[in-house]
Amino acid sequence: MSTSPVGHPPARLRAQDFILASRQSEIAGLQQLLHTGELVTAVSALVHCLQRERGLSNILLSNRASPPARGLPHALTDTDAALAALHLPLAQLDRAHPQAGNLSRLFNRVAGALHALEELAALREANRGPTADRAASMRRYSDIIARLLGVVFEAADGCGNPAISRALIVLFSVMQGKELAGQERAIGAAGFAAGTLDDDAHRQLLDLIDGQERCAQTFLTFAGPALQAAWHAGPGQGNPAFERLRRILCAGRLPPEGDAVQAWFDITSARIDAIRGVEDHAAAALNACCRAALAGAQQALAAQQLSLAPAEEAGYTVLLATTPGGEEARYSTGPLGAPLGRAILDVIQQQAQHLQQLSAELTTLRASLSERREIERAKALLMQHRGLSEPEAHKALRSLAMAQNKKLIEIAHALLAVETVLAVRGEDAR
């Protein structure tokens, strides 16, 4: 920590010093968000490779003679390349100051994802063995992918810029929907390869279809016109051949011929690639949003540095803002010159309005994320205590909301409140 020479008072700090420091702090935060956006893009590429590897592994473990399984070695190579590419944006994050930009929670998610990825080599080795379990392999792959998606969700939840937060929510929604589509591909491929689909796999298939529809709704709610158009022109169009095979799977009457697994894998892969195209657009929009915000903040800093120049001494009082209670807040320039004082007050007012607008927009976006989290918790409660599947729990919540003429989030809050009360009474009884 620097100190002033003995006998000399410290340099007097000025209002403009903190105005510029405020803008520089904003720029530092936006630079971290840019690195976070690049990290999310790398996570997106890795998840896509892992999804294909999981699907081909599922086919291999269901029927090692199935032709699509021959593509697995190439898929492993692609995954390894995507994993190596992940380390560059990870290295660019500021690990020395995790509290900056609320990075501590994001770093925790990253740690969990990297720990899960360390198990990938062991998972691959287990799948080569004669006693490999297809269901266990599916769960392990899906856990790795879920942890990677958690990094994207945390980035959206902890983002301090509304436009970037919205872009992250859009990207997370399409990534989550694609993950459910990837699980559907893997389960369907295993069913066609084995010639049968058991009850658990059938229920999971229906859950995945319902989940994909909800992800698409979230995506379309937050996405801009260009991304909405990309969705409707690609995966949103539908494919009759895909729908026919999906109906066959849902009905449980799988054809005996071996061509069905190849047809299913090719069609679902084309559909996932189409979703991947939208995902690429969403990732590009995210990074463009980060760069635009950073460039705007840098331009604003340059303009403020020019405007906050020394001036002649003079003093005056200016009405700056009106407080929430209606009282006028007046600030005096004191010994500062009128031009400089006016510039400082103008900048303070502009930045205060900017921060207020950001706060309002962030409150709306985070409320959406919070509602999503609370509804998921309420569904988990119903699944645990009533033995429902995820879609059944969602339908039960929706039915309660309609019957009581309330919003879904209000029903979720009520259920969670009941759980809390019962938990407290249980503790008291002990």
UniProtKB/TrEMBL annotation:
Residue stretches in coiled coil: none
SMART domains noted in UniProt: ANTAR (SM01012)
Any single Pfam family the record assigns to this protein: NIT
Stored PROSITE patterns: ANTAR, NIT
Gene Ontology molecular function: RNA binding
UniProt xrefs under InterPro entries: ANTAR, CheY-like_superfamily, Nitrate/nitrite_sensing, Nitrate/nitrite_sensing_bac, WH-like_DNA-bd_sf
Ranges of residues in domain ANTAR: 355-416
Name recorded for this polypeptide: Transcription antitermination regulator
